[in-house]
């Protein structure tokens, strides 16, 4: 009997001890220790960061096609130059042909370089014609009209005030032998093939190409090259357009 009471007493003591320990744990444990959900930042609560302004893309400056002294001056019967216009600087290029011809100073060295490289490649070029004054253009135009008729004269680059030659930026080129000089048959020469493939590297473009008469107003002239500078010549060559199309459509 005493053993039975003793066992009950021990059980009560253990139970009381458990209760006391539980109360102590509740009192001493930090409140709100339960894991709280972590809030996900929303667009409104996110830290605002300044977005850098987009870098401005440089705008390409259009070529000057209207100033008489510009090497990209566009000239035709609708865009003429005055009768008294003469380029500021004319020089005789030291090339292995006609030294009496003069051109604008800007294309002297490029012309020399082109002739030298053509010669190294086995082609002897000749500078047939360079700068021509308004008076010379007038004389030539009437000569062609008298010989071939007005219709023919209208199709050549000799219009007074509307010829690239008066700008000093046009050159008529040919074979040193004189074969096919100022004639469409020049297009069948190896010298022409070399010019067509390489002239733009020196700043020259074939100004009146085959099949473009309705655009340029001038008949096919494989001997006629126009200086516009290397950068512009490369762009025009890559576009596959005539000078008229390239500048009037851009």
Key traits:
single chain; 250 residues; alpha+beta; Muramoyl-pentapeptide Carboxypeptidase, domain 2; four-stranded antiparallel β-sheet; two-stranded antiparallel ribbon
Task: Describe the protein.
The structure is a single chain. By secondary structure, the chain is α+β, with helices and mostly antiparallel strands. Among the domains are: 90-131 and 168-249, 2-Layer Sandwich (Muramoyl-pentapeptide Carboxypeptidase, domain 2), CATH 3.30.1380; 133-165. The chain has helices at 2-28, 108-120, 134-148, 150-153, 190-198, 213-216, 230-239, 243-249; strands at residues 90-91, 103-104, 125-129, 170-175, 204-206, 224-227. The strands form two sheets. The protein has a four-stranded antiparallel β-sheet. A two-stranded antiparallel sheet has the order 1-2. 28% of the residues are buried. Mean pLDDT is 84; it is low at 31-47.
Helix content class: 25-40%
Instruction: Please indicate the percent range of residues in DSSP E strands (runs of 2 or more).
Output: 5-15%
Supply the helix-strand structural class: alpha+beta
Shape: elongated
The poorly predicted ranges are 31-47
The CA-CA distance between the termini, in Å, is 118 Å
The arrangement of helices and strands along the chain is HEEHEHHEHEHEHH
Q: Output the number of helix runs.
A: 8
Output the CATH class name of the domain at 90-131 and 168-249.
Answer: Alpha Beta
**Can you give the mean pLDDT?**
84
CATH topology of the domain at 90-131 and 168-249: Muramoyl-pentapeptide Carboxypeptidase, domain 2
